[in-house]
From TrEMBL:
Record has DNA-binding as a keyword: yes
Residue intervals of the Core-binding (CB) domain: 1-81
Pfam families referenced in this protein's UniProt entry, alphabetically: Phage_int_SAM_4
Organism expressing this protein natively: Agathobacter rectalis
GO biological process entries: DNA integration
Keyword DNA-binding among record annotations: yes
GO molecular-function terms, A-Z: DNA binding
Protein name according to UniProt: Site-specific integrase
Family of this protein: Belongs to the 'phage' integrase family.
Keyword field: DNA-binding
Amino acid sequence: MYEKYLLQLEEAGKIRNLKERSINCYKNYVSYFLNYMEKHPEELTCQDVRDFLLAKKDDGLKATTLNLYNSAIRFFYQNVLHVLWDDITVPRMIIERKRSIGGTLVDLPIFLDN
């Protein structure tokens, strides 16, 4: 049903010199999104993407995975559908980082002396 759009996505990736693996990942993520939404691609909005990502977050997907979906769908919107992307409506997820060292500010002089 969406083959025409996925071929356009592949072509857009090739003309921008994306790696084959990246193109295939983008196609998989976009295909999943299109099948989930069950709408004609020309009718999709940024709000649809936001709703999709929130649903996937509720399903337990991590921020890194959601950002992969975001990147793929954004590429699709901009380079295949030629739709303006709204970073306010569809922001990237903040990825929480674990601290690499333990201790407190009191311990800082000890780390700096070593």
